[in-house]
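Appendix B, example 12.
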Amino acid sequence: MQIFNNKKIYIFFGIVLTLIIASALYYFVSVCEKKAQIQADNFAGEAKKMQLLVAQKIYEKQKATTAIAFALSQDPRLLNAIKTKKIDGAYYKNFIQRLHDNTEYKNIWINIIDRNCSDIYRSWTDIKGDNLADVRKELVAVMQTKKTTYTVSSGKFALTIKGIIPIIENGEAIGIFEIISHFNSIAIALQKFKIESVVLLDKKHSQKIQYPFTENFLDGHYVANLNTLKSKLEYLQKHGLVNYLHNGYRHENGYLIVSYPLKNYNNEVLGYYIMFKAGKDILNPDDQLVMFKWMAFGFVMILIAAWIVNLVHYFIITKQKNYLKKIIDSSTNIVIIKNDTEILDTNATFFKYFTNEKNVDEFKKKHPCICDLFVKEKGYLQAEMDGGMTWAEYVLEHPQETHVAKIRYNNKVYYFRVSVSLISEEKGHYGVIMSDVTAEEEYKLELEKLSITDPLTGIYNRRYFDTKLKEKITLAQRYGLKFSLIMFDIDHFKKINDEYGHDVGDMVLIEYSKLISEAIREGDIFCRVGGEEFMIIVPYTDGEKAKKIAEKLRSKVENYKKIVPVTMSFGVNEYIEGETSDHIYKNVDDALYKAKENGRNQVVLK
């Protein structure tokens, strides 16, 4: 009887064990299939992110390149240079060198084209005079539409990114000013994301390359970036380049290889941006989740031996916490856990920026909220946002927007891109990720400054003047605030250029712009609107007071006598309610003309 009972027990445990093993095998197969599907989805998602990333980088460079081209195209000397086909190459080469030394732009080219789409100046070569109308259709389109554009383009030298500015005179396009940049800085930027790049021009267009910039070709395709790894070119050639041009992405040999089509202004595919990223560098949290489920199944099995469950559970949880803590601490981004009022925890990266405190408690004693360090400046996060929401609530409610906080700490200024997620609705705990974008933000601000600054004198340009004039008119119409314009130019400036040369003329413009800048009030807006013509927007000032200001400036200029003694004529006009920007501009221009007609070196108020 005992033997029978033992047999039944053995049979029972055998059946249970078989069921457990069968369940484990079934579960294991399911987990493997799920893991494979998640990995496939993850690689597809990562490929999409890489394509969006390179598209964003190309777009940013197109906009930045166009901004530089626009700023340079405002030089009034350019009109005459295009007409006479006499280009000051030294000026542009000096500008390119300054970009090389002070920005990420290391291989900028400048191209100036006449009304017939023929080159009259190329900064990178002495070759000029050839007609580009048949090679580059976008130039013909720009001349016809008279619209600024940016595009990816190819010609006789390379596959490049171009900002194309039509030069207009009397409503007619008389030429084109073009800034040309390359894909090298984009490839370098993507290396920060552990992505290696190969930029290829389509074989059909590669046949038109006569003077290859990189001197590098792959299976008849021109290689457009200088910093291409030889191993990546050999890989593409060995496995068949055509397999990587049109398939979107492939995962093979430990790499995710993604292709992104490069299109011109007419949406025609010119080439391909091929990216390599090692599979080990692709984060896969869902894959970790699958493995965690497998571990959880193991825990269920271990429950059969109840006396070791607590020990195993404690060991696994502790290991996971340490592992997750190490992952978070290794992040280059700041990670903060907080509630509505205070910081609860941070990662190690937090104290790489906030170095005066050793731990969270010390930091909270000085700064109960991280928002105490936010700089109060338009366009950046504030402690309290629209509608009385806290900054964290605002970011959480507007996930589609890009949120940047400007922080001043230890006399240093940092810019952080901020994202917020709700960790626990019950406890009101938030997770905050702060990514350091200081370099990007400073670069953007520098480009913005460049686009509104006159490159010769360093004061504001005509574009900035037009913007500020419209703002002042709006404020005047809305709140009745007075303002006046002072317009002036240098008397007989052409004579100075003719007698002493344009270099001396430029020195005069620089020196007397500095003199005027130091003499005007802090709130006055000083702009160069033409060759030797200048404009000052004088807020909260009527015409009579503006005339007195202009008279002081006229006297100061007359007595200065640096470089070459000069005098200036001034026109003054007070804004009258209902006037347009064109109207007040014409009035002050008429006043200046009257000052010149009356003998120059005087102030006329209209």
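The two ends are 125 Å apart (CA to CA). The chain has a mean pLDDT of 86.
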